[in-house]
């Protein structure tokens, strides 16, 4: 039932949301928030003071009366969700405030509760006025975590903070006195797992020490929890964790962090191998568990035997993912006013999906599969699609009309053909693949 109501509520939430809000929203992520921080703080004339706001128990304390009065959905159903309570240890606990615990509609309700902070700040410090340009107030919000920039500590403490406190009080929320603080950019601050700080006037964004330590603790748990496991099992458990952490930080200044993480993981795996073979020397351990990869010497890897119908027994090398192998590339921030439920933004989000697919390995596989399915040709002009011609991904059923990102709803078009499809409102038909013809 929450999913059904969310289908109607989410487009409304996206339309009225703060432009600089990035958490729990379609086509937005933490990377957009961090890139916005860079744009707001990197210049020489950027604001130097930051209010790090932390809401005390946001999801647990939102006023039910405020939600029922302001959320445009069925009031009776919403009130039942809010008052349903929760069961823990076979005991029912009443809920007098807060959104449904674990409910898929809760993030949207929380976002709608906090939407309006940006409009409040723009009204108090309009950029069209001289004072508004001097105070340099910017908001960057990811769910209930947000920062506000300003030209001075006094401005943030005496003018901005009281505005935020009054805004939150109407919704039953308060700022945490312990965690909310005002910081100078030269001292640096942590936000969404990144550390933002200026060094001699240059802003550098790096993985925070706390986030890196938490990641390494997770790696240690996996290694220590698999003392007697096969090498393949250790690699298969570590790779998703390493790949996820690296992909999150690959858009910032993370080269040094990646190298230090690689060394620590190598040290843990070396200890793991020595513990398994206490009587073997280091040369034996190196040759047993580490493979020479040429450009990167001695990668923790093992051989996996897969049965191949044509060649019989085929050998494949399964190796650990190393953070240092990942190239650092700046993230492209989503445009603040972009709305995935608005038809005029369809081509914009298709272009963003194209860019991500070209970079990600899974995305490249999807592009290759689409290219094969349509015999390498554009269904509009029937000409060959290649790296030289370029391509755009097109949704047969638009996402604003409920279309998905699966292969069955995607097709590759030449960029010019793609523009014609949208400008002339043409209908694209999925081409018949050669595999289907062979089966027929």
Briefly, what is this?
The chain has 440 residues and is of the alpha+beta class.
How are the strands of the largest sheet arranged?
A: 4-5-1-6
- How much of the residues is beta strand, in percent? 15-25%
Cα gyration radius (Å): 26 Å
Mean pLDDT over the residues: 88
Number of beta-strand segments: 14
- CA-CA gap between termini: 42 Å
How many helix segments? 17
Write down the overall geometry. globular
Which blocks of ≥5 consecutive residues have pLDDT under 50?
306-314, 434-440
Biggest pleated sheet: 4 strands, antiparallel
Helix content: 40-55%
Q: Structural class of the secondary structure composition?
A: alpha+beta
Features:
440 residues; alpha+beta; four-stranded antiparallel beta sheet; three-stranded antiparallel beta sheet; 17 helices; 44% helix; globular; disordered C terminus
